[in-house]
Amino acid sequence: MADPIADPRAAIDVQINSPGREGLTGTAPASLYAPSVDREQITIPPDFTSPDAQPGWRQDFPIDWPQDQYVERRDFLKFMVLTSAAFAVGQLWIGAQNWWRRRSHLADIRRIVSLDDLAVGRALVFDYPGAHDPCLLVRLGPAECVAYSQKCTHLSCAVIPKPEEGVFYCPCHEGRFDLRTGAPTAGPPRRPLPRIVLEIRGRDVYATGVDERTT
Amino acid sequence: MPANRPFSREQRATIVYGMLAFVMIIVILQLWLLTATMNAYLGGDDSIVWPAAGVSFACLGLNVGLLYYLGRLERLRRHDTRAS
């Protein structure tokens, strides 16, 4: 007779009316499904060896819930570690961007416009410090000018100067910045517009640097 | 009590739950660190860029260490099964 522990199929009772089981239908005693070798070993592999001795692909696709939950949590843990690696790489990317910005943003002194060519209350678009960094120069008074980056600090839409309202207006999400300080006054932006440092020499307006701020 | 007795599957599942809670807290911390660093960087404050990167990599090291420990537990279990 085969060992029922080694081969659970040997415990199958082929006689329906064996003593103690009269009136029951079916061919297998209830004890067949009780844990026989190890209470953890719910799944019986085809070769009747331990689940831990099975190949990796079989262990990763279990058919019993406890092992399935274990594999799921383990794989989720691996995914979270991968996410952690992605965040660390993101930090490295910010560092690389910062290095590049420091290297390339050695802002030069550049003449923007003559005061004679810009009336009070008018604005001018210019690029500074790079060729793809649009900025806005607004003349507030006879000898008073302000300049800010044109990119909204929310999602980089181009802001529109509205000197009559005293604001820079971002049409994408109704953002507003104070015309004099560049500080956000309404809408989703939280950071002020980067300020372009200006210098007036005679009648000419020069940009001398970029002042990026968090508050 | 044997010193190198491998953990049962239930014990390993408990360990995985504990690790998962720990790793998720660290990952949330890393996410906050990333957004805070990005905000500071975009605002022109680059003083925290490299310290934050160092902390983030330290967190990654912790997570990888935990994952390695879990793999070691599984290898120990398999080794013990084959030996017995």
Can I get a quick summary?
The complex is a heterodimer of chains A (215) and B (84). Chain A folds into two domains: 52 residues; 102 residues, Rieske Iron-sulfur Protein (3-layer Sandwich), CATH 2.102.10.10.
Could you name the key traits of this structure?
heterodimer, A: 215 residues, alpha+beta, Rieske Iron-sulfur Protein, 2 domains, 4-stranded antiparallel sheet, 3-stranded antiparallel sheet, 2 helices, 10 strands, 20% helix, rod-shaped, B: 84 residues, mainly alpha, 0% strand, elongated
Q: In the residues of chain A, how many domains can be counted?
A: 2
Question: Can you tell me the residue ranges of chain A where pLDDT is under 50 for at least 5 consecutive residues?
Answer: none
How are the strands of the largest sheet of chain A arranged? Answer: 5-6-7-8
Count up the helices of chain A.
2
Find the CATH superfamily of the largest domain in chain A. Rieske [2Fe-2S] iron-sulphur domain
Instruction: Round the Cα radius of gyration of chain A to an integer and report it.
Output: 37 Å
Helices and strands of chain A, in order, run as HHEEEEEEEEEE
Roughly how many Å is the radius of gyration of chain B? 19 Å
| Major beta sheet summary of chain A | 4 strands, antiparallel
Gap between N and C termini of chain A: 84 Å
Shape of chain A: rod-shaped
Poorly predicted regions of chain B are none
CATH topology of the largest domain in chain A: Rieske Iron-sulfur Protein
Mean pLDDT of chain A: 82
